[in-house]
């Protein structure tokens, strides 16, 4: 089964019929509910613990309540309550937060009915701690996946750690490459990368570097701000141009032939029936964006099955050839082929 991409959903779903979809949701969406339940019917459910969102909102989650929500919804995969790092946090604080994360992993394994559904988070503040923490997880956790959490570079006072900033930079590629290689060489876990499926470009970057799966809730956010995703490309404005993030190019300004061609060939339920809805209805844009991302994951799955070189050739010629992220793609290829664990990235 293709498990490359989990589609983000919430209490008020874009679609109720999810019987053919892998869905990512969060405990935070049901935390205040007396009787948590889903308003949609997923094929498989991956339930995030909500810790990162809570941290960004200055909230504190109770372990017992997080367990209660997880056991009520009984997802196929879920993350024990962890403690992500924050920008400029002292090393001692990071170590204490990792110890608390470790304690919760053991607690969840021993005290819940979630069993092999658990996906532990990996956090690290140095190259040495990265390897030590992977080794600890390999020894103590019975799971086929781990989720990459906070990864801290030597420029942590400037950079918010992996979880804090998904902007594609060389620092991000460095940390991601090193973490993936460390996991692959020191464990039998596969890597889930939270929130890296926001566009075809980001999805392909993660998969090429060795990620086994990722998730996308960005398709909803982009749609709400008037953006659509184009196959093999990034986002473009089509209406309600109020977003201040990502690409600022309006789809209809100087209509590029490649953009129009991509849109004309779109096979999503909206574009096949009434393209005008794309300009006026954010849910229609969300359905379009979700369709594009799922199709992109299918393409990636097929190409990866044919071998890394086939996949790389496709990305060279079709995805990154004219992209503003081509310099990141070239850097990612170097890291994918030549980075070794012994390289000094972390101090």
Structural features, described:
The protein is α/β, with parallel strands linked by helices and 347 residues long. The protein folds into two domains: 212 residues, Queuine tRNA-ribosyltransferase-like (TIM Barrel), CATH 3.20.20; 86 residues, no CATH class. 44% of the residues lie in helices and 14% in strands. The chain is built from 13 helices and ten strands. The strands form two sheets. Strands 4-3-2-1-8-7-6-5 form an eight-stranded parallel beta sheet. It has a two-stranded antiparallel ribbon with strand order 9-10. The radius of gyration is 20 Å and the shape is globular. The two termini are 39 Å apart.
Helix/sheet category: alpha/beta
Counting DSSP E segments of at least 2 residues, the number of strands comes to 10
Q: Which consecutive residue ranges, at least 5 long each, have pLDDT under 50? A: 156-165, 341-347
Tally of individual helices: 13
CATH class of the largest domain: Alpha Beta
Gross morphology: globular
Instruction: Give the proportion of residues in helices.
Output: 40-55%
CATH topology of the largest domain, what is it called? TIM Barrel
CATH homologous superfamily assignment of the largest domain: Queuine tRNA-ribosyltransferase-like
Mean of all residue-level pLDDT scores: 87
Tell me about the largest β-sheet: 8 strands, parallel
- Tell me the strand percentage band: 5-15%
Distance between the termini: 39 Å
What is the rounded Rg? 20 Å
The second-level CATH architecture of the largest domain is Alpha-Beta Barrel
- Strand arrangement, largest sheet? 4-3-2-1-8-7-6-5
Order of helices and strands: EEEHHEHEHEHHEHEHEEHHHHH
Tell me the domain tally: 2
């Amino acid at each position: 089964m293709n498990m490359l991409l989990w589609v983000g959903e919430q209490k008020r779903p874009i679609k109720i019929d999810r019987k053919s979809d892998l869905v990512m949701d969060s405990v935070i969406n049901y935390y205040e509910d007396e009787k948590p339940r889903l308003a949609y019917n997923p094929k498989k459910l991956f339930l995030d613990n909500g810790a990162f969102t809570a941290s960004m909102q200055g909230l504190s989650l109770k372990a017992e309540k997080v367990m209660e929500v997880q056991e009520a919804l009984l997802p196929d995969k879920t993350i024990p309550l962890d403690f992500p790092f924050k920008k400029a946090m002292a090393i001692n604080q990071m170590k204490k937060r990792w110890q608390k994360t470790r304690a919760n992993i053991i607690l969840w394994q021993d005290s819940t009915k979630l069993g092999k559904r658990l996906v532990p988070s990996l956090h690290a503040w140095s190259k040495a701690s990265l390897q030590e923490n992977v080794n600890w997880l390999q020894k103590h956790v019975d799971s086929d996946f781990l989720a990459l959490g906070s990864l801290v570079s030597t420029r942590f006072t400037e950079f918010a750690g992996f979880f804090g900033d998904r902007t594609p930079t060389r620092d991000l590629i460095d940390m991601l490459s090193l973490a993936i290689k460390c996991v692959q060489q020191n464990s039998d876990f596969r890597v889930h990368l939270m929130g890296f499926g926001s566009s075809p470009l980001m999805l392909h970057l993660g998969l090429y570097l060795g990620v086994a799966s990722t998730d996308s809730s960005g398709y909803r956010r982009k749609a709400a701000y008037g953006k659509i995703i184009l196959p093999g490309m990034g986002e473009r404005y089509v209406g309600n141009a109020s977003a201040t993030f990502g690409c600022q190019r309006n789809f209809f300004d100087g209509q590029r032939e490649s953009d129009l061609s991509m849109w004309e060939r779109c096979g999503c339920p909206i574009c096949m029936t009434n393209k005008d809805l794309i300009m006026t209805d954010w849910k229609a844009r969300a359905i379009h964006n979700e369709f594009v991302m799922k199709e992109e994951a299918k393409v990636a799955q097929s190409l990866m099955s044919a071998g890394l070189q086939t996949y790389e050739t496709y990305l060279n010629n079709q995805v990154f050839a004219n992209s503003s992220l081509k310099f990141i793609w070239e850097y990612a290829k170097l890291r994918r082929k030549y980075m070794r664990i012994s390289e000094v990235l972390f101090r």
